[in-house]
Design goal:
8 helices; Immunoglobulin-like; 21% strand; 9 strands; three-stranded antiparallel sheet; alpha+beta; 46% helix
């Protein structure tokens, strides 16, 4: 019974990790849409995928049960806090938007099932941690298991490295393994006023040996517009990019612009705009 339960839960976790991974890979504004920092989203992918695989491959072990309890305990705390803060959705399943009350109930139900299965006579996993480590190390020496383990470790390492470096759009391997020509920028925009236009200038210097072409871009909100200008950055030269912003709500403000580049060392360049929006400028 416990093996079936852990395998089903593991499948759900892998599907959840896949949904988050797809959002991170396909949407450069994943963190702005979900309200989670990029590092948290990437770590969630790594944690859910790892615990899910552990639940499927080692469903009879105490370690698998314990890992599921810890993970779903954390997920329950996060989803409950999101509901208390008034978010419309937990955003735990990537693009799939579920009611904010659904996820805490689901996490609580999973925890109840895990503890129930643990206490049913005959269903309790009996493998001790030491026996688990011993059997696992023996299996890892077999080629068929060693290859799978190395692939999983490489995936988790790539996920963690991407999240740690805060890549705005995620599997950008030119930025993971290569040195960025144009480091991402975070610009503090002062004196933002509700429904009033403001120009923001961005200076870019091309320190590489090749010319760079800006071939397009996307913005996170209609309140930010790219103003057409020079698109070619010659080697050793600088240009200024112009953005025009018009905040539509007061309070803390955070938007993002992603420029797509034609350059062998970098495929995109990210600008985060942050500031506070007031109804009127001080002194008016």
């Amino acid at each position: 019974m416990s093996r079936i339960v852990l395998a089903v839960i593991g499948t759900i976790l892998i599907l959840s990790a896949g949904a988050k991974l797809w959002l991170l890979v396909s949407d450069p504004f994943a963190d702005l849409k979900t309200g989670y920092p990029l590092l948290v989203l990437w770590l969630a992918v790594a944690a859910e995928a790892s615990v899910g695989l552990l639940g499927i491959l080692r469903s009879g072990d105490d370690l698998s049960w314990f890992a599921n309890v810890v993970l779903f305990g954390v997920l329950f705390a996060v989803s409950t806090s999101r509901m208390a803060l008034g978010f419309p959705s937990c955003n735990c399943f990537g693009e799939i938007q579920l009611p904010v009350w659904f996820t805490p109930i689901m996490n609580c139900l999973v925890l109840t099932i895990l503890f129930t299965v643990k206490t049913i006579p005959g269903n309790r996993p009996h493998t001790r941690l030491g026996e688990f480590m011993q059997s696992s190390s023996a299996k890892l020496r077999e080629p068929r298991y060693a290859g799978s383990a190395l692939a999983l470790l490489a995936f988790v390492a790539l996920v963690f490295w991407n999240g740690w470096n805060g890549q705005a759009n995620s599997l950008d391997l030119t930025k993971v393994f290569g040195r960025s020509v144009f480091p991402d920028k975070r610009i503090l925009v002062d004196n933002l006023v509700l429904n009033q236009l403001k120009d923001v200038k961005i200076s870019l210097y091309n320190g590489s040996a090749r010319d760079c072409q800006i071939v397009g871009g996307v913005v996170s909100c209609e309140c930010v517009a790219r103003v057409d200008g020079e698109n070619t950055i010659a080697s050793g030269k600088s240009i200024e990019l112009l953005l025009r912003v018009k905040p539509t709500s007061h309070g803390a403000w955070h938007q993002r612009v992603v420029y797509y580049l034609s350059h062998p060392q970098q495929s995109r360049f990210v600008v985060d705009l942050v500031g506070g929006v007031s109804h009127l400028i001080e002194g008016e």
